[in-house]
C-alpha cells in the first residue's frame, strides 16, 4: 500500500539519537537534584510559575524553562521580539491548544459564528462540534491571487458576515473572563490542505477586522518551520518570514489590552507527535492566564510537564561552545531537505501527467515556482470540464492499485453558509510527509494513470 493520504511524519525522520541525548542530559540534571529545593522557596509565585519539579504537577502555564527557551530560539530568527514567557502556555499539542482556546474564549449563545477557511483542516471542525458549536460553523472561501497580494481568507466575505450579524445580534456574554463574539480559525503557513501561505497584507487586514468586531483569531502554525523552497520567482519571496498574527496584534495601536490572537504551535511536526508537546502564544499575559485557567488544566497542571523539560534540551542553545546553533535548527534543516525532495518528485509527475487545465494549490500545473513552498501537502483541482467520477476513481485506486489519496469531500465545512464547494467532484489532497520519494512517484504515476483512463473512458462513452 502506498499512502499519500496520511499527514504524518515518516518514522525514520524522528530525531531519535538527539532525543536520546536530550533525555540523558535532562535525567542527569534530575538526578543531580537540580530541582529538589524548589518546594522550599519562600516566594510561592516563583514556585508556582517557574521552579516546579519536573515530576510534580505542572504550573498552569507550564514549564517556564521551556517557554523562555522557545522565545530565545524564536528571537534568534527575528520573531516574537515583543513576547514574554508569561504570554506562552504549554500544551500537549495543537489539537489540545485549539480545544482549550474554544473552551476558554467562546460561549454558547454569545459566540455567534466560528469561521473556518474552506477547504478546511477537517479534524479541527470536530473540535468545534464537540464543544457545542456545530450550528455556528461558517465557511470562508480562500483567495489565492498572488498578483494582487491577496492570498488567504476572503476578507470581503468575512466582513459581510460580521457586519450583517452586527445589525441583529444583541446578546451578552455571561461566563467569567473574556468571551468573543466570533472565532476565526485558519492555517496561515503552508495551509492544510491547500498549501498556501497568507500574504502580509492579508494578515494585517484580518487582525484589524478582528479588533473591530470582537473576534478571536486562532491560527495553527504547526508547519511554519517546514519551508522547503528550492526555487525563486517573481511572485514568491521564499526567504520572507511572514509576521505572526500575535505579533501584528501587539504591534497595532488599535489592539485592546486583552488582545485578539492566539498562535497555536506544536513540536509534533518537528520532533514527533508522540511527544505531545506544544504551546500557544497569546496577545497578552491576561489572555494566556485565562487560556491556562480551565478546570482540568488548573487541577492537573499544564500537560506534558516532564516531557517539556526534555524538549527544552532540544530547543535551547547548546552549552557546548562548539555548538553554535540550537539543536532544533539542525533537525528542521534535515526535514526541509527531505520534504523538498519528495515534493519536487511528486510535482514533476503531476505537471507531466495531469489533464490540461488542472491546478496544483490553486495555480496552473505548469511551474514548480508556484507550488507550496513548505508544509506537507499538495492540493489538486481537476478541470471543470473533466466530468469524471473522481470519488469512484480514488476508491478504485485504493482497492485495485493500493494507493491511498485523501478525497476532497473531507475538507468541506458543514456550515451555516453554502453547504458545499464541490471539493469532492474535482479535488484531492496528496501528502509527501509519509512515504519516501520513490513511493511518492510510484503512487502519483498510478493516480495520474487512473485519472487519464477515467477521462478517456468518459469521452469515449460520450462519443458513442
From TrEMBL:
<keyword id="KW-0808">Transferase</keyword>
<dbReference type="GO" id="GO:0047536">
    <property type="term" value="F:2-aminoadipate transaminase activity"/>
</dbReference>
<dbReference type="InterPro" id="IPR004839">
    <property type="entry name" value="Aminotransferase_I/II_large"/>
</dbReference>
<dbReference type="Pfam" id="PF00155">
    <property type="entry name" value="Aminotran_1_2"/>
</dbReference>
<feature type="domain" description="Aminotransferase class I/classII large">
    <location>
        <begin position="56"/>
        <end position="432"/>
    </location>
</feature>
<dbReference type="InterPro" id="IPR015424">
    <property type="entry name" value="PyrdxlP-dep_Trfase"/>
</dbReference>
<dbReference type="InterPro" id="IPR015421">
    <property type="entry name" value="PyrdxlP-dep_Trfase_major"/>
</dbReference>
<dbReference type="GO" id="GO:0030170">
    <property type="term" value="F:pyridoxal phosphate binding"/>
</dbReference>
<protein>
    <submittedName>
        <fullName>Pyridoxal phosphate-dependent transferase</fullName>
    </submittedName>
</protein>
<dbReference type="InterPro" id="IPR015422">
    <property type="entry name" value="PyrdxlP-dep_Trfase_small"/>
</dbReference>
Amino acid at each position: 500500500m502506498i499512502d499519500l493520504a496520511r499527514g504524518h511524519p515518516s518514522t525514520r525522520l524522528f530525531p531519535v539519537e538527539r532525543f536520546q541525548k536530550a533525555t540523558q542530559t535532562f535525567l542527569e540534571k534530575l538526578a543531580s537534584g537540580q530541582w529538589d529545593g524548589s518546594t522550599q522557596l519562600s516566594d510561592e509565585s516563583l514556585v508556582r510559575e517557574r521552579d516546579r519539579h519536573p515530576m510534580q504537577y505542572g504550573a498552569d502555564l507550564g514549564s517556564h524553562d521551556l517557554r523562555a527557551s522557545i522565545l530565545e530560539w524564536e528571537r534568534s530568527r527575528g520573531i516574537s521580539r515583543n513576547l514574554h514567557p508569561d504570554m506562552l502556555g504549554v500544551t500537549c499539542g495543537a489539537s489540545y491548544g485549539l480545544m482549550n482556546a474554544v473552551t476558554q474564549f467562546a460561549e454558547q449563545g454569545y459566540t455567534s459564528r466560528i469561521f473556518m477557511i474552506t477547504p478546511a483542516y477537517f479534524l479541527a471542525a470536530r473540535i468545534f462540534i464537540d464543544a457545542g458549536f456545530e450550528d455556528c460553523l461558517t465557511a470562508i472561501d480562500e483567495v489565492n491571487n498572488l498578483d494582487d497580494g491577496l492570498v488567504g481568507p476572503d476578507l470581503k466575505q468575512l466582513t459581510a458576515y460580521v457586519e450583517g450579524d452586527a445589525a441583529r445580534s444583541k446578546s451578552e456574554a455571561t461566563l467569567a473572563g473574556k468571551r468573543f463574539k466570533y472565532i476565526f480559525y485558519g492555517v496561515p503557513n503552508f495551509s492544510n490542505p491547500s498549501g498556501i501561505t497568507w500574504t502580509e497584507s492579508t494578515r494585517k487586514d484580518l487582525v484589524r477586522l478582528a479588533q473591530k468586531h470582537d473576534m478571536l483569531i486562532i491560527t495553527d502554525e504547526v508547519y511554519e518551520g517546514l519551508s522547503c523552497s528550492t526555487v525563486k520567482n517573481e511572485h514568491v519571496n521564499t526567504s520572507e518570514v511572514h509576521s505572526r498574527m500575535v505579533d501584528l496584534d501587539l504591534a497595532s495601536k488599535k489592539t485592546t489590552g486583552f488582545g485578539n490572537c492566539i498562535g497555536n504551535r506544536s513540536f509534533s511536526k518537528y520532533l514527533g507527535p508522540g511527544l505531545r508537546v506544544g504551546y500557544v502564544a497569546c496577545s497578552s499575559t491576561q489572555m494566556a492566564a485565562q487560556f491556562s485557567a480551565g478546570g482540568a488544566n488548573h487541577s492537573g497542571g499544564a500537560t506534558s510537564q516532564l516531557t517539556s523539560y526534555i524538549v527544552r534540551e532540544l530547543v535551547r542553545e547548546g552549552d557546548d561552545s562548539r555548538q553554535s546553533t540550537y539543536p532544533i535548527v539542525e533537525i528542521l534543516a534535515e526535514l526541509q531537505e527531505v520534504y523538498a525532495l519528495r515534493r519536487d518528485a511528486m510535482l514533476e509527475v503531476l505537471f507531466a501527467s495531469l489533464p490540461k487545465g488542472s491546478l496544483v494549490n490553486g495555480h496552473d500545473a505548469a511551474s514548480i515556482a508556484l507550488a507550496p513552498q513548505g508544509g506537507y501537502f499538495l492540493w489538486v483541482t481537476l478541470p471543470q470540464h473533466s466530468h469524471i467520477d473522481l470519488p469512484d476513481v480514488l476508491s478504485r485506486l485504493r482497492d485495485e492499485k493500493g494507493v491511498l489519496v485523501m478525497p476532497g469531500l473531507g475538507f468541506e465545512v458543514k456550515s451555516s453558509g453554502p453547504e458545499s464547494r464541490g471539493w469532492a467532484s474535482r479535488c484531492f489532497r496528496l501528502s509527501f510527509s509519509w512515504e519516501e520519494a520513490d513511493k511518492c512517484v510510484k503512487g502519483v504515476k498510478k493516480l495520474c494513470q487512473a485519472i487519464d483512463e477515467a477521462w478517456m473512458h468518459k469521452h469515449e462513452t460520450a462519443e458513442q
